[in-house]
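>> Question from a student workshop board

For tomorrow's exercise we were told to take the sequence and the ligand below, predict the bound structure, and bring the output to class. My setup keeps failing. Could a helper post the expected result so I can at least see what it should look like? The ligand is NAP.
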Amino acid sequence: METVSLGTSQLQTSRLAYGCWRIAGTWNPSEVTPEKEDIGRRAIIAALEAGYTHFDHADIYCRGHCETLFGQVIKANPSVREEILIATKCGIRFAGEPWSDSPHRYDFSAEHIIASCEGSLKRLHVETIDLFQLHRPDFLMNPEEVADAFNQLMRSGKVREFGVSNFRPSQIAALQKACPMPLLAHQFELSLAKLDALTDGILDQCLTSKLSPLVWSPLGGGVLGSPEISSGQGPRHPVSAHLQETISAIADARGVSRAVIALAWLLKHPSRIVPIIGSTDPKRIAELTRAPEIDLTRDEWYRLLLAARGEKLP
Ligand code: NAP
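>> Workshop helper replied:
Here is what the output should look like for this input. Compare the format with yours to find the bug.
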């Protein structure tokens, strides 16, 4: 698959990243079964075979179990490590940890950032995390304290590069001011089902600060690829019949699937968006790699935008 540089660095990412959020088949470790683990490992192998070289994790995905599954694949195929970019995230803490009355919260203390990184390294079975990201902004973030933690992790070789997720532009600016190393990536939600980042300054900042936009739920949790999805781990946002028809018309004319068109719409943006694919179906994982081949015309791009907005542009 075609690659692009991550931010201003030498690190390369495949044009589509593979997201490991769903590979355990559940959020709850007590519901993991050997069958679900097999599906997850097969999905990782399918992504590797299809040419994805960027794998996105978080310490909280199935409470570390997704990282553990990935670590098992790396342990069984050690030569793969040199060919891929491993990204993970920290900073969200579950209720009840470490104390029974601890609330669900965010924690960017240096102590938690470093402990979380060390836990991920063990589970992922690697010595270095390529891209370490802060998952959701901690209201108590002290930029100097985060910079100090990042410095320690970089100096000790535990992390190569850093990024953030779900931040406001002003929060990134405050953190970047304190950090000696450039932040390389910003991970946020964007799709034809969720347009906010086009207008709230987030994509503008990616362009001006040369941050790589890593986009989560690029298919709106699946609804843009399969309109029949309506609940559970499916769509996060309602999508109009007119948008579904517009995607289908362009997909039919181009001879590709609806999901490929929804991804091509993201790839057209000049900030070089990297959509993070969440399917665990090997056929879909492979088929979606057609998206970088589709260069939508401006007319097609705007027809999709207008259908997604549901109203005219001013
Ligand atoms: P997505 O690609 O929008 O949705 C994937 C889901 O859609 C899967 O359940 C998949 O089911 C389903 N689907 C239905 N029809 C499909 C089709 N035609 N093509 C492809 N998928 C179809 O992405 P996502 O899983 O919501 O998120 C992707 C990644 O983003 C996550 O794995 C995670 O790494 C990251 N993420 C980050 C944050 C954050 O806060 N930073 C939040 C959420 C997610 P099948 O498995 O059956 O194909």
